[in-house]
Amino acid sequence: MIKTENATVYIGNNLDILPTLPDNSVDSIVTDPPYELGFMGKKWDYDVPSVEIWKECIRVPKPGGHLLSFAGS
Length: 73
Known about the structure:
Elements: E1 2-3, E2 8-9, H1 14-17, E3 26-31, H2 51-59, E4 61-69
Parallel strand pairs: 3-4
Antiparallel strand pairs: 1-2
């Protein structure tokens, strides 16, 4: 976690961080999850995020908050 006067940036695995955050507590989520492409044979890119993660991503933003998620086709 990086905390400044105006912002807190959480860096880490969504599975670990999102469940610790209260409802309606986040202004924005920016994420670059695995694309399930097996990029360069890396194990971390063989699975896509679960439905549970996306439910958490809907639960934590404040009204008017936003989600920016990069994805592959």
